[in-house]
Amino acid sequence: MKIRTSAEPGSGKIYLKEVQSSVVPLVSLVIPARDEEETIGECIRRSMEVFEDMGIEGEVIVADSSTDSTPDVARSLGVKVIRPEKLGYGNAYLAGFKQAQGKYIVIMDGDLTYDPLEMPEFIRLLESGEIDFVIGTRLKGRIVEGAMPALHRYIGNPLLTWMLNLLFGVGISDSHCGMRAMTRESLEKLNLRAGGMEFASEMVIEASRKKLRISEVPITYHPRKGASKLRSLSDGWRHMRFMMLYRPTPFLLVPGSIALVLGLALTLFVFMQEPTQEFRTHSLILGSMLLIIGYQTLLSGAYIAAFGKTYGVEGPGRLTKRLTSYHSLELELIVGTAFLAGGVILGLDVFLNWMEAGYGSLQEVQKSVMAMVLTIMGIQTLFSAIFISLLLLNSENGNQK
């Protein structure tokens, strides 16, 4: 296939890596594709039209994991088609980024839900030198009827965007819009590793954490042809999980601390009462439940903080940073052993009293519940200490990626 050129001097031409590798493109368009044979051809043609109309060199890279003729259609138009080693939205982009040579990187889906003809504004903002990262916004633009389910439009996207803005101070209106552009220098600053749909959140979070200058462009969102590959609940959970990785404090450490304090106060209050006051038994059970749940939630936050450190999340926050920086396996083993010993001693005391009572009725509810709580917390602490130390072992040895 020939490189398309305009007859007038200085006009743009389409850069096709497979045809003329000596030309360095200004823009690299990376398109992830999976069974998009109906739309990929038109998507590529519109992209080429934009490059030619703007008078710039541009390349199109299709990261394809299709089982249909999508790669054949793309190759017939002269663009480079690569096959990612792993399936997944994020894996497709990560593979495409390795092949991209342009000064500016543009990404969008190949199903024509995003129109390549809207690329010029993204590119112009990057060319101005005042913006590092551009993201489209469907919610401030136009959503064609039938393009986005009501659940996504009015609940899912606004809620997840609100959470992301609250936790990371991004200040955008549509955090999951798939049409984006950034400078090569900005892309190289981002620690992008997610292989699935959470890649969309990871990119925005990383852009905010690296203090990139971010701008939004209102765009039109179109209905896709064929069945949607989005899975509302699982994809939503993936985004939530990733935000939790970067910010475990509001998700786990704060609610865990509240439950722990309330449970501890209620449990100790009832434990100190006379055993004849049987009406407080339910309060004791509630308090012990809150205590165990709160403690386990705190430990889960510590797990995530430790994993985040090995994953490569920098600067996780003062509280989580302390949890990982001052982690001591020996100290936690001592604390866990103390809890466990206290539980065993109380439990043994209850058992001996039961023996003395001839294995009959015994009013030892408070002591029995406290023995259970201490035993559970002791076992939790011991295994958590070992688990967290193993998670941190990689980063402590200097092998963090």
Can you tag this structure with a few keywords?
401 residues, Spore Coat Polysaccharide Biosynthesis Protein SpsA, Chain A, seven-stranded mixed sheet, 13 helices, disordered N terminus
Could you say what the CATH architecture of the largest domain is? Alpha-Beta Complex
* H and E string: EHEHEHEHEHEHHEHHHHHH
Percent of residues in β-strands = 5-15%
Structural class: alpha/beta
What is the rounded distance between the termini?
Answer: 41 Å
What quaternary form is this? single chain
- Computed over alpha carbons, the radius of gyration is 28 Å
Q: Helix share of residues?
A: 40-55%
**Number of DSSP E strands:** 7
Main sheet properties: 7 strands, mixed
Relevant CATH superfamily of the largest domain: Spore Coat Polysaccharide Biosynthesis Protein SpsA, Chain A
Which fold does the CATH topology of the largest domain refer to?
A: Spore Coat Polysaccharide Biosynthesis Protein SpsA, Chain A
Write the layout of secondary structure elements.
Elements: E1 27-33, H1 40-54, E2 58-64, H2 70-76, E3 80-82, H3 89-99, E4 104-107, H4 119-127, E5 133-143, H5 150-168, E6 180-183, H6 184-189, H7 199-209, E7 214-221, H8 232-246, H9 248-271, H10 281-311, H11 318-325, H12 329-356, H13 365-396
Parallel strand pairs: 1-2, 1-4, 2-3, 5-7
Antiparallel strand pairs: 4-6, 5-6
Helix pairs in contact: 5-8, 8-9, 9-10, 10-11, 10-13, 12-13
